[in-house]
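Posting for a labmate who doesn't have an account.
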Amino acid sequence: MTAPTIPVAVRRLPHAADLALPAYATEGAAGMDLLAAIGAPVVLAPGARMLVPTGLCIALPPGYELQIRPRSGLALKHGITLPNAPGTIDEDYRGEIGIILLNTGEAPLTIERGMRIAQGVLAPVVRAGWREVETLDETARAAGGFGSTGFGGSGPGRSGAA
C-alpha cells in the first residue's frame, strides 16, 4: 500500500539553488533526507553543536508538522545526533529550516555542502483539550516512574526511587 501524498509548498533559498529538494530514499521510507546548504565545509568538533542551514522554507498544510530526526548512519558511524530530537517545524513557521547537529563522537566530522544531515517526517498533529479533574482512574502502574515497568530502577520487588 502506498502512503498518501500531502502537498507541501517549499521555497528554495539562493544558497540552496543547486541542491536537491528533500526526497525519500526508498519506496517505503518514512523520512526524507535534508541536505546541508553551506558554502564551504565546516568541522563539527567532538562535544560541539552547530546550526546547519538547509536553504529551505516550507508552508505545511493545517494539521501537520515536520519532525526533524537524526540519520541513523551518522549516529552510528560518527555519533552525530540532534539534541532536540525530534525537532518540530510547526505549520505556521515560514523561516529557513535549520538543523541543530551535536557531535557525541570522539572525532571531528566535516560537514560538506549537500551532505545528508537529518531526515524530515511529515506527521499529523492532534491537539489536546485539557479537562481538569480532581482524581484520575487507577492503573496497575499508578505513579511508578522511570524504570518501574522492569527496566531496572524501582517498582514491584525492587528498591530505590522512581
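Reply:
Got it, the C-alpha cells are right above this. Residues 157-162 have pLDDT under 50 and may be disordered.
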